[in-house]
Amino acid sequence: MLTRRELRGIDRPLLVAALLLLAVGFLTLYSASFQKAQATGVSFFTRQMSWAAMGGLLALLLVVVDYHRWLEWAYLLYGLNLLLLLLVLEMGVVRGGAQRWLTLAGFTIQPSEFAKVTTVLALARYLGSRREMVKQSWRALIFAGLFAAVPMFLILREPNLGTASVFLPMALAMLLVWGIRLKVLGLLLAAGAALVPLGWMGLADYQRSRLLVFLNPNMDPLGAGYTVVQSRIAIGSGGLLGKGWLAGTQNQLNFLPERHTDFIFSVVGEEWGFLGSSLLLGLFAFFFYRSILIATQTRDPFGRLLIVGLVALLASHLVVNIGMTMGLMPVVGLPLPFLSYGGSWLLTCLGAVGMILSVGVRRPVF
User: Distance of alpha carbon 106 from its chain centroid, rounded?
Assistant: First the structure.
């Protein structure tokens, strides 16, 4: 439990940055879902507020309880999450041809989102307790790879290529901080590149279409490329200062699909323009800076690995999400941290904040 001294040491700039990102998310989601709420009475904004309240309680719990306790339970939490992923494949809710959700006690959750954090916990515990194995990089790499590969395989079966791909930068970042030799890391990346043709053969038809549309969105402007084309129009039309809150035409006239989830950054670009988008990216950069600062200040390898994995998770989502809304990356369905609608994803983001703050208040500084 937290002492008064530790509570005073909470990283307030990081906490404020997270709260500001959450506030921006609420404003953007309200605008993105305004027309749907008017037409159907379904309010994504209200639902997101409820999930945020639960996420706040989760973050508080993660801060109050020593993060070493969560690391002690890491393998158990990891195993339970794998069980949920198996249940999804057997009895999960099907939406849009994908089986990714599970209904428990009246709540619909997406276990693949939680698997990202439980995998980071498991890897932090495994690598942190095996610092002496750095010179035996291949052995550690095999076991660490298995921790990431098992949930990846189950998530690919849903299918969910975007979420599965996030496990790679998470694991690589943690291995790099752990001290894996660059030669080994280079060979691993080369091997992964060599397997790309096999990966292409294993993709579903709609996934191949998304990759081809990435190379040329205009090849199917009314089909697979429609969302990307409309997203680029929305961002470009925002200009320097944007059209104003609730005044984006691509958004309010329903030209932009999935604008409350994967393409919510397009709403930011249209309504707040280049300046507003840049300020949002600056806020994300500050959040990551404060997180990495905590990691560099602690002597605890477990805490350092935990933060690096969580930052890699959120940063990869940020880069890929914004990249795909601008047509710079394939559309793989990754939500934007703190902004995109989704209860499981918001719980994941706020849980990550709680863990980072937990390391911060207990870090033995140099």
Answer: 24
Q: What angle do CA 38, 40, 45 make, to 5 degrees?
A: 65
CA atoms of 19 and 356, how far apart (whole Å): 14
What is the reported pTM? 0.91
Rg, the chain, Cα only: 20
* Start-to-end Cα distance in the chain: 23
Q: What is the pLDDT of residue 152?
A: 92
φ, ψ for residue 360 (rounded to 5)? -65, -40
**172 contacts 185 by C-beta, under 8 angstroms:** yes
- Domain range summary for the chain, segments of one domain joined by +: 4-362
Residue 257: CB atoms within 10 A of its CB come to 14
| 104: nearest Cα among 81, 84, 83, 80 | 84
Q: Is 104 helix (H, G, I), strand (E, B) or coil?
A: strand
User: Which is nearest to 354 in space by CA: 47, 62, 21?
Assistant: 62
Can you give the pLDDT at residue 333?
81
Distance (Å, rounded) from C-alpha 293 to C-alpha 284? Answer: 14
The residue ranges of the chain whose pLDDT is under 50 are 365-366
Strand 98-104 with 93-95, pairing = antiparallel
